[in-house]
Amino acid sequence: MHWLRTVLAASVFLCASRGAKGQETPPEQGPAPADATSESDTRPTAVTTEPATSDPTGVKPGISVGESASPLGQTDERAPETETHAEPPPFELPPLTWKPEWARVGTANYVFVGAAAAVSVGASILRPLNNHNLEQPILFDEAARRALRFDSLNARYAALDLSDVFLSLEITWPFAVDALVMAAGVRRSPDVAWEMAVIDAEAVALTTAVHQITALLVSRPRPYLETCGDELSPDLNLCVRNGRYRSFFSGHAAMSFTGASLICAHRFRHEIFGTKADIVTCATAYVAAAATASLRIVGDVHNASDVITGAVIGTAIGLAVPALHYRSWDKRKRGAKVGMDYEISVYPTQNGIGLAVVH
Asked: 0.70 cut: is pTM over it?
């Protein structure tokens, strides 16, 4: 039994010594020499060394300029700050302005448009006077007719249709393009668009009224009437309708030149498309107006004197009506321009009263 107790004691001692040995921390050893090898150190050891650098900035390799080392030795992954610029806004034309000294449309303008339209309708319904005037060609009417008139009847009809197209463009452009699309839409100025539209309506209504009254009173035969019963059937509408005695002056010429003048008049005060584009638009409008007037001679419904008179009247009205609105109606400002902006004051004195003129 003694040997058994001895064996048991030795076993307990060995178990206790192994447990204590497993809890001990092995001593820190330095790197083994290059030529030292042992069976226990068979696993490869990864050794990381930092190469020497001569960078004067003192920045460690692996850390780019603009990055900073964190307290834990890790690099800052944030991207370097760069200067940013806001994208420019899309191209926009500035709004149009109506100057304070320009006359604003009002009730009187609306009444004028309505009255002129009523006169035009009434004059167009009435029959021209039986006493016809200017029955014979004047000046160079006959020479222009021989040079420009188409021989073919169908060609003359085509010329008249084309003149109607040009006239429609000339009349609708100031309203639809300049006032509605450009001023109200693109330029975001509905108030200016309304002013322009009423001015256009006044000019068109006035031109129409003057034309209808003049044609009613003058009662000039149209050039083609001499061909009724010969080239044209006497029963043709052209030969029997009231319009056969409304040759002077040409309504197409007057209205087309009124439209062209309105297109240019508004561009004298507003830069609608831009300087160069406005000049081209104005010139094109007058060329189209001249083509409209010429086609009336080609179609044999007007003499040269008819279209020239219509062009002059239409241009005058198309420029005069806008000028009345765009002129300065501020008396004080007009006086300042000519040196008349003075104020007279009356004040008491020891001997009576005195006058003071203040500029």
From this structure: no
